[in-house]
């Protein structure tokens, strides 16, 4: 059976029968880290279920600036808009880790949704939830400092993708400082200043494509949340 929880990712909210049918309809494909899954503005008409791994959602803004819209994780459905309405891609999806995906061609996926109204409702909840998430994210810009937003992001990434190291939690994802700045809706200059302060305080050690967080508890205290256990 599906989880039944309204906040469960699309794949996990489906029933076992739904998942079995979609596995028959779709095809599995693996993507290497940093590989492009779909490109913004291209005409492709499939949706993607992330069975494992995570992807970065980005779009090109004015003057070539890349805006990071979010990170999607295992269980999430991505590319569903073009997969359902057949329009051009509204964003680029690129793998951050090794990704195992289920590719669902548009017409079989639409037929599946027509024959399974309960699954279509889950898709509707997924899309609505992302709109609410975007609203909360924008509201956080006014209520939290860039430091708090970055701390919150790193706690999430550390808990989900971090690995234990001798002196902290190592996050190895191909996220540039530009990516991090986009994810917390601040400038690269401000992000660089925050990271420099944290390095001085020995909260983090930054690498080219990695970050060592000395203590997730310390970052949670910066956010103002209660500690709920280390990775």
TrEMBL record:
GO terms for cellular component: cytosol. Pfam families: cNMP_binding, HTH_Crp_2. SMART domains: cNMP (SM00100). One of its GO terms (molecular function) is DNA binding. The keyword Cytoplasm does not apply. The keyword Acyltransferase does not apply. InterPro entries: cNMP-bd_dom, cNMP-bd_dom_sf, Env_Response_Regulators, HTH_CRP, RmlC-like_jellyroll, WH-like_DNA-bd_sf, WH_DNA-bd_sf. It comes from the Bacteria. Keywords: DNA-binding, Transcription, Transcription regulation. PANTHER family: CRP FAMILY TRANSCRIPTIONAL REGULATORY PROTEIN (PTHR24567), HTH-TYPE TRANSCRIPTIONAL REGULATOR ARCR (PTHR24567:SF74). This is Crp/Fnr family transcriptional regulator.
């Amino acid at each position: 059976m599906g989880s039944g929880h309204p906040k469960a990712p699309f794949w996990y909210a489906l029933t076992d029968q739904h998942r079995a049918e979609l596995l028959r309809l779709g095809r599995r494909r693996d993507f290497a880290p940093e590989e492009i899954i779909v490109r913004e503005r291209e005409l492709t008409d499939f949706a993607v279920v992330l069975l494992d791994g995570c992807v970065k959602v980005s779009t090109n803004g004015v003057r070539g600036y890349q805006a990071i819209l979010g990170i999607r994780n295992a269980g999430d459905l991505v590319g569903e808009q073009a997969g359902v309405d057949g329009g051009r891609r509204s964003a680029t999806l690129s793998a951050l880790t090794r990704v195992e995906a289920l590719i669902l061609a548009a017409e079989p996926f639409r037929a599946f949704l027509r024959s399974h109204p309960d699954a279509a409702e889950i898709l509707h909840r997924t899309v609505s939830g992302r709109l609410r998430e975007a609203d909360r994210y924008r509201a956080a810009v006014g209520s939290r400092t860039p430091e708090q937003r970055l701390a919150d992001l790193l706690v999430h990434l550390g808990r989900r993708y971090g690995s234990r190291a001798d002196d902290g939690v190592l996050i190895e994802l191909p996220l540039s400082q530009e990516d991090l700045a986009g994810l917390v809706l601040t400038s690269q200059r401000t992000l660089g200043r925050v990271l420099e302060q944290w390095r001085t305080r020995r909260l983090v050690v930054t690498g080219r494509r990695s970050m060592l967080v000395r203590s997730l508890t310390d970052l949670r205290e910066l956010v103002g949340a209660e500690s709920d256990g280390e990775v």
